[in-house]
Amino acid sequence: MHGTVEIHEVQSAVLVGNPLGDPAQRRMPVYLPPGYSSSSDSFPTVYFLHGFSGSATSWLNTSAFTPNVIERLDELIGKGVIPSVLGVFVDGWTALGGSQWLNSEAIGRYREYLARDVVAHFDQALRTIPKATSRAVVGKSSGGYGALVMGCRHPEVFAHVASHSGDAYFEYCYLPEFTKAAGPLLKAGGVEPWFREFSQRARETRVRSEDFPVINLIAMSAAYSPKKGEPMGIELPFDLPTARIRPDVWGRWLVNDPVRFVPRSLPALAKLSSLFIDCGIRDEYSLRWGARMLVDELRAAQIEVVHEEFEDGHVGINYRYDRSLAYLVPRMARS
Fold first, then answer.
1. Which residue from 46, 187, 206, 256 has the highest number of Cβ atoms inside 10 Å of its Cβ?
2. pTM of the model as a whole
């Protein structure tokens, strides 16, 4: 390792009293490039957003035979492929497995948490260059979705965005999973009893593969269709007894689909300095097509975007950060 990693405790004002009771203080790994401690230089900062069911400390996990993203960032800097940057690995874990990096009355204000509290903490705690052109936000899957949200809603905070296999075109990536979730929810008697049994079993034994479509549905409903007074504060996008789509609720999901909100956000995206979008051609959630739709909209609006496709699926694609970082980091302002 050429650089060093340290852990920061970040206190968030906007997460205090969040609906799920998740902690407002979060532990986040930070990558410091070579020479940080022995110099007075300031550096651009890349904010990394994990995917659904991830957490900040999961970036520290090691895998056999292949480097993790922190090691990849360090190697890119050590070999001179990219100039030195700070790396902040943001924690977006919730009791439901994630937040989609949105503000939700069922989960908490995670968009503001990132754009306001997290960035403010590191601008104070580290020698960052505190301006949008010196900040990048990158992520994969739900993290890639979050990066697009930040680019559309907070171009004044992040001027460089990379979305790896980000959730997009909900008809393809979510809709096919609904019937897989409907059966277990119907059998359990609703979202609350299912979630109680799931939580107990996860603590006492293990999570099952067939649990994923259900917990994913609940978490996405909490992000896209929260409603006070309903069980767990959410509305499902389908009627539970029949699995018939509820057009009003499904419509609330679609408003949050990048394929819908990117065209509404073109003036904000035109302010970005860098935009990178990729996806594997064998992505198990069919995200390739949503990525293509986004790129088509962006190019029609004459917004510069790097779009890449690669021979792979949805998992085990950390090597793709080599591509996005090699594009974004040299374009970041260093003064």
1. 46
2. 0.98
When pLDDT is averaged across residues 85-92 and rounded to a whole number, the result is 98
d(CA 81, CA 105): 42
With a CB cutoff of 8 Å and minimum separation 6, the contacts of 63 are none
DSSP-assigned states of every residue in 214-225: HHHHHHHHHHHS
- DSSP 8-state class, residue 115: I
Q: Are 120 and 126 in contact (CB under 8 A)?
A: no
Max CA distance (Å), the chain: 64
Three-state DSSP state, 159: coil
318, 66 contact by CB (below 8 A): yes
What separation in angstroms does the CA of 293 have from each of 30, 172, 231, 263, 307? Answer: 34, 12, 35, 10, 11
Tell me the β-bridge partners of 48: 89, 138
Whole-number Å distance between alpha carbons of 263 and 253 = 16
**pLDDT score, position 300:** 98
The reported pLDDT for the residue numbered 317 is 96
What tokens appear for 32 in the block? 């410091």
* Residue 128 exposure: Cα atoms within 13 Å on the Cβ side: 25
Taken in order of first residue, the domains within the chain and their CATH numbers are 4-168+258-331 (3.40.50.1820), 172-255 (no CATH)
**Length of the chain measured in residues:** 335
